[in-house]
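TEACHING EXERCISE
Course module: macromolecular assemblies
Task: Read the component lines below, then compare them to the predicted structure of the full complex.
Student: A.B.
Group: 4
Components provided:
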Amino acid sequence: MTVLATDGVRKTYGETTALDGVSLSVEAGEVFALIGPNGAGKTTLVRSLTGTVDPDGGTVELLGTAPREADEDRLGVLPQSFSPPGRLTAREVVAYYAGLYEDARDVDAVLAEVGVSDAADTWYENCSGGQQRRVCLGATLVNDPDVLFLDEPTTGIDPAGRRTLWDRIEALAAGGTTVFLTTHDMNEAERLADRVGLLADGDLVAVGSPGELVREHGGDRRLTVTVDGDPTAAADALGREAMTDGDRVVARGVEPAAIGDIVDALDRAGVEYTELSWAEPSLEDVYLALAGERFEPRAGRPVAGDD
Amino acid sequence: MTTTRRVQSEFVAAWHSFLRRRVAVFFTFFFPVLLVGIFGALVQTNPAGGGLFAEDPAYYVPGYLATVVLQTPLSRMGSEVARHREGSRFEKLATTPLSRAEWLLAHTLVNTVIIAIAGFALLVLTVGLTGASITFSPLLLLYVPVGVVCFCGVGALLGALADSQDGAITAANAIGLPLLFLSETFVPPSMLPDWFHPLVALSPLTYFAHGLRQAIWTGTDAGTVLLGLNAVESLAVLAVLGVAFFALGARAIPVTD
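Instructor-supplied answer key:
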């Protein structure tokens, strides 16, 4: 069942185009992550989906109806820079939002679920950044929503706190909650999302599972050698096409089985190097490639295997 | 029932937030003390020989109350709306069952409680310090909440139009001060040029001060631009204005920043 759907959604602010004909759909129980540079239109798309912004054109459906007609008891929304009243305790913040719904969950159970029971009686403004974000998530989960919108939910949270939130989101998704999140953290998108959409300049340039996107847009596997000397000699020693970038030599399309031969070749050529690394393409490579910020060796000079 | 629950939840959160801001609490209740202390005790009134406060002391009681009923909602609601907007709280609330009217109602109730306490203190101080002789009227109990509803609506409008908390407070002061002195509160219309009288009649605060004065003061009126309106009729006009400004204020509350 389709829970969220947009068709040709457009939104401009003065001269700036925030959304330029965005079409997507999210099915029930799916975790959809929206990635993209700052100003790409992510928050505007979330607001269009939740009915807090009216698009200039196109259609938006949430739970089969216009967003503003959707049953609020089934929605949980965590805005990007959300800050509840600072001089309420964590428990009071969650209880406040619980009081706005017909049926709400037990407040202490929600606090325990998001891992802030210890700070239940602490004023929100005195909680740490990670605790604050978890309290906000608690306030978003208190009505046991069917659809969850999380706009950069882990921004400003330390790694441990981030993992706690990830675990919670995974558990919700496993329980059938539809999750639509925006993030700048590619690990977050890769770990949590069933599908990822990349928004750039208001345009949804790619949608797919993380694996599909990496295969289609992530490029080749890379071997990077950081040399202590002349990179050209190192590139020649590799015996394959490579690019230099300062003291680094990058060869693409290197299979793991070939690494041993390359190490031997570098030793034979007397190349001294400080680091040798091999990497699979990742969602970050997809992001950089499609958002126009891809890493390319600056020298850009093929020095070996060049026809 | 659910509306009651939602308004109660918003009220409790807003009330706790207010009580825990000690500086705000202190100055909210210190303000009437300061007001009566300066104008009632230091400046004093001079019924016989003209001067700044030339009327009977009781004439100014509606003016003192009008000050609290006007200034507190204007500045508190203006800054509250701006604070909610800056913290994306309205964006969050827009996706909950709480409506904008319910939000404004809850905050109006908070202001009503605050102003009822401050107003009572002000009345006691005024009578004690200036010897003002007023008669109790049940209409007093209606004028204060109706006035608060009206000016909470205006405050919400200011908060929606201003782009920051500072802007909202500045706008509240800029609008509040002229209204305060040009609405039959402290300055009788006889001291204003005739051409200005229609403008005095446009101010909601005029209906508050004029009507309340008619309800609690039996002295000789120093003149009014609202000839023919008694206390109940003035209250009715204020109530209509209150409903209008409340509706406009609720509608103006922004959803996003």
